[in-house]
Each structure stands twice: as structure tokens, then as C-alpha cells.
Design the sequence.
């Protein structure tokens, strides 16, 4: 049992872990798995028809991997990661290397890097996106760490990653916890786009009164053009799914309370710490929280009434969704740039966009133009300043404005569409009313203010 026969080990053989391990195996890697439950380990081995070795003894698992060892964790973020690390420590040797592939908070990754480095071991955080199918047939992976660390495991990850024109959707995102940070923002963008899709669906069905086949067909049609993306594709699929337990459409029977694992909230929280506006993501997080208040919503509806109807064109809905998608990418990538400067990540936004082009949940045809924009100008402060991106966005804003206006008049909530439009109108305003806020703050708190015509800080006696 102590013979070292494997080059790579993986702990956490749930749906994602099992699929990823089989993907690694299929691509010529000598890999081994661990599950603490003997019966489950045997079951996973049997499912692979003897191709995969799975240990339930942690010491035997660690010793089966060639030195210096590379071991990946795909376990629930938080205490579970620390518990697994603590369990392995007695069996690790200098230069052994741990990769956390879960959705860990980047601050936890920073702490674990310091802890493991002090003990003579390596540690890197890596975001993995794509769900079960992605893990099995080609995920997008976002590792953070040093180039030397990536060199140790890069070939394994590149062999299993999704590909675009032969280019693997995995690359080093930057130093330290950059991988988990980029994945966190990826998920924040995901929150924004998913909520925008839900809002357009609501406008179509509740506002415009379109039936489900019409909505499903419209999303399917959109997926053939500029909106082509994983999230639009699966929306068309779920909308046309008939209920197997009763008559009608399955989506109509699903509870309207959306769950969340926290990554969207983390994105908003750190954006606020950095002073970077990401209102589409903020609104998406709040929308999920509001969805949880169903009893309150039902009571309020009884008092205030429900939404009215509206008229809006399919083209305006298309443009509203495309504008929000473009703005969500711009917000998220601006946040990554700011975090890279603040935390010393040295992230390359062209590389980030390259890795997101396939395999991940937010993949879309818009990622290649984004990659090209940062390839042309690596110092681009915002995608909104790229000529090609600006031209595309300009063509969609009228539709976004029309949809937001119609929805607000009908009383249909479109928080992400509205926040995206407000962000656009704010970012294109050379002068904003923050001068009034400066004056108010100086009035009640003597906080001082700056002038446009003179340098320095000023305080006035206002009353």
C-alpha cells in the first residue's frame, strides 16, 4: 500500500470531484482518489470499472503519490478545508503541495498559504467552473500562486481543461490568492447575468403576457447570435421542460426563492472595500435576498396590488440583456484590476478573459472581443473605453432604457437592468451631483470639501 504509483491525488469525490478525476484519468494522468467512507470508496472504484483507485485510508492515499506530492481538494469551503489539511499534515513531507479547488474565500486562501509555507509545504487556491459536465469534459480553471507552483501541476490541468482553438482554459491568474479572487468575481458576474435573464423572462411572461413556448423559442433564437452563451442556452432548455409530475411547465412549479452560496455577496463586499462600483452584482445579491421573503411579499401584494401589463419589443429585450451582460463583464474585470493592484496579484486581464472563453458558467461569444481588447491595450482601465466595445454597447442602450422604463411603469421589478442602466449613465457623466453631498457633509460634520477652481480642502459656515 505504501508504493508511490500516482502523480496526482484528489480528495473530495462528490459529483464534481469524481467527474474531474475521471477526466484526468481519460487524459493520460496517473491519478488516485480518497474518500473517508470505505463503502463509498469501493462504490466509486466499481463505477470506474477498475480504472480508478480510491483509498479510504488517508495515510495510504498520501503515500501512494510520488514525491513531491501534488494533492487537490474539492471539499466544501470553510472549516472542511482546514480539517482535511490538518488530517494530512502528519503524512506530508517537505515540498509536498496542496491545491484547494473549492470556492474558498480569498482571505482564507491567503491565511492557508502562510500557514503551509511556514511548515515547508506548498499551497495554492484554484477556482474551478463548469459544473459536473464541465469537470467531466472540460472545465475552466483559475489557479493562483507562483509560476513554479503552476509548472508542477500545469500539464495535468491543461490536459483536462476546456479548449478554444487548442488553447486550454486554464492559466495562472496571479500571485497568492488571485485564483480564488478571480473565481469569486466570476461568480459575481454570474449572479448579475442570471438575474438579468430572470428579469427579462419576467417582463416577457408577466408583463407582456407571452406564453412559455414563445419565451423558450426567443431565448433559443437569441443563443444563435450576440447573446450566445451557456446561461442563455440553458435558459432556453429549462423553459421548454414540461413537468413530469403534473400538467404544465416545470419552471412554473419551482419555488421563487433563490438560494446562494455567498460568492456574489463576497464580490460585492470586497468591491465596496476597494471603492469599485459593481451595482449589477450588488442588485443581483439583493434580489436573491428579497426572493427569500416570500411571506412578506405575498402580504405586501395583498395591500398594494400586483404589477400591470406592458408592451415591449423582442429587440429591446435582446438589447437590454446584451447591454447588461456587457456592463457586468466590465464591472467585474474593473474590480479584478483594482484588486490586483491592491493585493499584489499582478493579474493579466487578457489571460482572465482567455480562461473564461469556454468551460465556465459565464462563457459567451463576448469573451473573445474582451480578450482582444485587453490584448490590444493591457492597461485599459475599463472595457467601456475600448472603441469596439463602446460601439457595441452604444447600440444596445436604447433597448435597455426602453425595457427599464416600461417595466417601471408597469411595476415589474428589474433591479439588475435598472442598476446597469444607472451605472452606464453615471459612468458617462463628466459631472455628478456629488458636489451637493460634499456640501451636506461639510454642513453637518465639518468634513471639508474640495473645489474645482482651487487646490486644497475647504470648510464653510453654511447657516
Sequence:
Amino acid at each position: 500500500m505504501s508504493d508511490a504509483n500516482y502523480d496526482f491525488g484528489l480528495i473530495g469525490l462528490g459529483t464534481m470531484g469524481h467527474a474531474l478525476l475521471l477526466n484526468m484519468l481519460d487524459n493520460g494522468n496517473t491519478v488516485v482518489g480518497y474518500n473517508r467512507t470505505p463503502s463509498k470508496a469501493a462504490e466509486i472504484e466499481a463505477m470506474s470499472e477498475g480504472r480508478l483507485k480510491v483509498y479510504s485510508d488517508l495515510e495510504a492515499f498520501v503515500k501512494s503519490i510520488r514525491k513531491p506530492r501534488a494533492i487537490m481538494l474539492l471539499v466544501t469551503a470553510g472549516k472542511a478545508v482546514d480539517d482535511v489539511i490538518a488530517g494530512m499534515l502528519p503524512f506530508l513531507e517537505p515540498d509536498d503541495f496542496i491545491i484547494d479547488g473549492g470556492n474558498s474565500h480569498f482571505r482564507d486562501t491567503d491565511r492557508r498559504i502562510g500557514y503551509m509555507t511556514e511548515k515547508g509545504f506548498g499551497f495554492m487556491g484554484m477556482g474551478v467552473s463548469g459544473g459536473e459536465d464541465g469537470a467531466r469534459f472540460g472545465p475552466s480553471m483559475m489557479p493562483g500562486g507562483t509560476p513554479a507552483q503552476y509548472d508542477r501541476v500545469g500539464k495535468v490541468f491543461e490536459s483536462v481543461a476546456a479548449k478554444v482553438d487548442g488553447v486550454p482554459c486554464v492559466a495562472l491568474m496571479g500571485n497568492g490568492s488571485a485564483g480564488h479572487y478571480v473565481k469569486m468575481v466570476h461568480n459575481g458576474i454570474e449572479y448579475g447575468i442570471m438575474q438579468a435573464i430572470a428579469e427579462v423572462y419576467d417582463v416577457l411572461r408577466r408583463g407582456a403576457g407571452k406564453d412559455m413556448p414563445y419565451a423558450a423559442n426567443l431565448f433559443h433564437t437569441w443563443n444563435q447570435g450576440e447573446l450566445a452563451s451557456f446561461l442563455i442556452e440553458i435558459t432556453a432548455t429549462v423553459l421548454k421542460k414540461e413537468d413530469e409530475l403534473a400538467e404544465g411547465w416545470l419552471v412554473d412549479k419551482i419555488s421563487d426563492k433563490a438560494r446562494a452560496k455567498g460568492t456574489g455577496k463576497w464580490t460585492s463586499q470586497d468591491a465596496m472595500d476597494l471603492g469599485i462600483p459593481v451595482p449589477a452584482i450588488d442588485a443581483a445579491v439583493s434580489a436573491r435576498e428579497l426572493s427569500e421573503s416570500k411571506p412578506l411579499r405575498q402580504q405586501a401584494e395583498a395591500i398594494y396590488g400586483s404589477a400591470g401589463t406592458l408592451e415591449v419589443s423582442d429587440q429591446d429585450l435582446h438589447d437590454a440583456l446584451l447591454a447588461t451582460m456587457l456592463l457586468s463583464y466590465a464591472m467585474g474585470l474593473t474590480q479584478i484590476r483594482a484588486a490586483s493592484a491592491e493585493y499584489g496579484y499582478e493579474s493579466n486581464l487578457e489571460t482572465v478573459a482567455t480562461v473564461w472563453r469556454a468551460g465556465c458558467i459565464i462563457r459567451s461569444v463576448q469573451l473573445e472581443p474582451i480578450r482582444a481588447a485587453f490584448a490590444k491595450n493591457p492597461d485599459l482601465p475599463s472595457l467601456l473605453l475600448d472603441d469596439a466595445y463602446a460601439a457595441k454597447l452604444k447600440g444596445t442602450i436604447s433597448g435597455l432604457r426602453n425595457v427599464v422604463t416600461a417595466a417601471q411603469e408597469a411595476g415589474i421589478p428589474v433591479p439588475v437592468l435598472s442598476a446597469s442602466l444607472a451605472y452606464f449613465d453615471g459612468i458617462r457623466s463628466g459631472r455628478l451631483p456629488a458636489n451637493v453631498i460634499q456640501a451636506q457633509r461639510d454642513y453637518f460634520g465639518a468634513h471639508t470639501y474640495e473645489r474645482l477652481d482651487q487646490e486644497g480642502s475647504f470648510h464653510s459656515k453654511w447657516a
Observations:
- The longest helix spans residues 178-207.
- The chain has a mean pLDDT of 95.
- The longest strand covers residues 122-129.
